Amino acid sequence: MRAGLSSRPFLTVLIPAYNEEARLPATMARIASYLDASGTEAEILVCDDGSKDRTAELAAASLAGRRGRVLKNAENRGKGHAVRTGILEAQGRFVLVTDADLSTPIEEHAKLAAAVRDADLDVAIGSRGLPSSDVQVRQGRVRQTMGRTFNRIIRSTTGLPFLDTQCGFKLMDRERVRPIAEKMVVDGFAFDVELLFLCRRFGLAVKEIPVTWRDAPGSKVSLVGDPVHMLLDVARIRWRFRRGLYNPEAAESAPAR
Question: By C-alpha distance, which of 190, 196, 181, 200 is closest to 250?
């Protein structure tokens, strides 16, 4: 921890990671450079989801001299589990979730932060689906089709209005979202849907913000099994909510807006 910093940071940059030794050091260096240039008092929190390579070791080395931690799961549980763990462990007033590949540049944090401030939001989600979104390098046609189809299903079955729930770039008020995260159960890639569904149901203010995005090779989403698992998780979310298995008092216990 650097001398002179207060006991609690303003921002936690949360990076879920699984077998990311090849690109994580460069990603963390870019994030650190952005935080230094912006003067943001922040911690970097890497949630290693049971990597089999040197992800945790390299992440720890990249944090030398900086405020930050590496949380390491003993086994691969899924991105949702890693993000949920990170939210619960974060110390920052706000939590920025970003992918290890920085498909959305870290500098886009400023857009989300401005939206949270100006619109009094609890959660701002980066979006590739809005007319003003800047998608510089698109995914392959199959992944694009899969993504659009999944989004249509999400909107029709959950009532969520967002054109992109899956962009891995989200800024949230930790105090408001923590009670939600405590009740989340989805470990896989549909955790974004669970998070946004519960935030909306429990009255949190959520807005979709256009961001710059470019496809990066090495996606962890499998075209074979993951779409099926994601749809099953969406059905599970609806089932749990209808039966009252998500405790509404969780959100009500959050600080008043």
Answer: 181
Whole-structure pTM value? 0.87
Per DSSP bridges, beta strands 169-173 and 94-98 are antiparallel
**Which tokens sit at 245?**
């298995």
Burial class (CB within 10 angstroms; exposed 0-12, middle 13-18, buried 19+) of 202: buried
Give pLDDT tens digits for 211-237.
Answer: 999 987 655 555 545 678 888 999 999
Averaged pLDDT, 76-104: 97
Residue pair 47/18 in contact by the 8 Å Cβ criterion: no
Helices 191-201 and 79-89: angle between axes, nearest 10 degrees: 50
Mean pLDDT of 200-211: 97
| Nearest residue to 70 (alpha-carbon basis) of 102, 121, 25, 120 | 25
Cβ atoms of 165 and 97 within 8 Å: the answer is no
Residues 6 or more apart in contact with residue 144 via CB below 8 angstroms? 138
Over the stretch 35-70, which tens digit does the pLDDT of each residue have? 999 999 999 999 999 999 999 999 999 999 999 999
Predicted pLDDT of residue 7: 80
Sequence-ordered strand ranges (E) for 138-205: 169-173
Give ∠ CA 20-26-63 in degrees, rounded to 5.
85
């209005």: which residue's tokens?
161
Calpha distance 98→95 (Å, rounded) = 10
Mean pLDDT of 2-30: 88
Q: Cα angle vertex 91, ends 90, 97, to 5°?
A: 40
Residue with the two structure tokens 């989340």: 184
- Residue 142 in contact with residue 215, Cβ under 8 Å? no
